[in-house]
Design goal:
271 residues, mainly alpha, membrane, transmembrane, transmembrane helix
């Protein structure tokens, strides 16, 4: 019957679709677990157990996620600027990154304050851009502030590293750790932005707000960066006094020994 065949075909299509969805979800879970383990391994290797460096790693990852989500939002924004304007914005960002990095390098104590102010200002500007998607001027300003923010993070990271640490290795791992979070946010923004145009910008607002809170947990300006607790020195074993080594019976106690076990009594009996 045609109706029965149509129902069987429909059931086969539904079953195959469900199998494809289950396989996709399982592979996605495996991929997320692998990315999480990789990111944690990079964070531990790069920070070297220093708490301040690990916090700055997290801050940089959150900010890079916000930036790549912002760039994904430019694809779906109605009044997005053209490639020429974006190139000019990135050029202005490069020019602004140099004095920002030099300022933090000369005065490391002001690094946390500068990071916090930049994040708060960018979060407010991104919120305004999410409300008015046609405001391409705000979008250009936000794009121009991406590179100066990264420069401030990396220069402050150099100042927080302990003496003798590999600087380039720590900077490279910081970029790797941040790109993992940033690519996840950017790809998700590209997919969801096709249905909700303002979604990537709202994600960027949330990430920048979290980054502003993480900036408060950075080491105090001018203070030593908190690190792992130093192990206590080994305690030498207690030395026994000569009198304690010779004394086998505690003072004030007597050992009861029956007469049958006394060797001197046996010798007397034999005699």
């Amino acid at each position: 019957m045609p109706l029965l065949r149509a129902l069987q075909t429909f059931a086969d299509v539904v079953v195959r679709t469900i199998r494809v969805l289950i396989a996709t979800v399982s592979r996605s879970v495996i991929g997320i677990r692998w990315l999480t383990r990789t990111a944690l391994r990079i964070r531990v290797q790069g920070s070297g157990g220093v708490t301040g460096v690990a916090r700055l790693y997290d801050l940089h990852a959150v900010v890079v996620a916000a930036d790549l989500s912002l760039l994904a939002g430019l694809v779906w924004a109605v009044g997005a600027p053209g490639s020429t304007h974006l190139g000019l914005a990135f050029g202005a960002g490069v020019l602004a990154a140099v004095p920002a990095g030099l300022a933090v390098s000369a005065a490391p104590a002001s690094g946390r304050a500068l990071i916090g102010l930049l994040l708060v200002g960018r979060a407010v500007a991104t919120l305004l851009a999410a409300q008015w998607l046609t405001s391409w001027v705000l979008l250009l300003v936000l794009v121009a502030l991406i590179l100066p923010q990264w420069a401030v993070h990396l220069v402050l990271l150099r100042r927080l590293l302990p003496p003798g640490a590999h600087v380039f290795g720590a900077l490279w791992r910081a970029m790797q750790y941040a790109l993992i979070a940033g690519l996840v946010a950017g790809v998700t923004g590209l997919v969801i932005g096709g249905f909700v145009a303002a979604w990537p910008l709202w994600v960027a607002v949330c990430c920048l707000s979290v980054g502003a809170l993480l900036a408060l947990r950075l080491p105090a300006p001018g203070g030593p960066a908190p690190g792992p607790a130093k192990p206590l020195p080994p305690v030498p074993p207690a030395k026994r006094l000569p009198q304690q080594e010779q004394r086998t019976i505690p003072e004030g106690f007597h050992v009861y020994r029956p007469s049958s076990l006394d060797p001197s009594g046996d010798e007397g009996r034999k005699k």
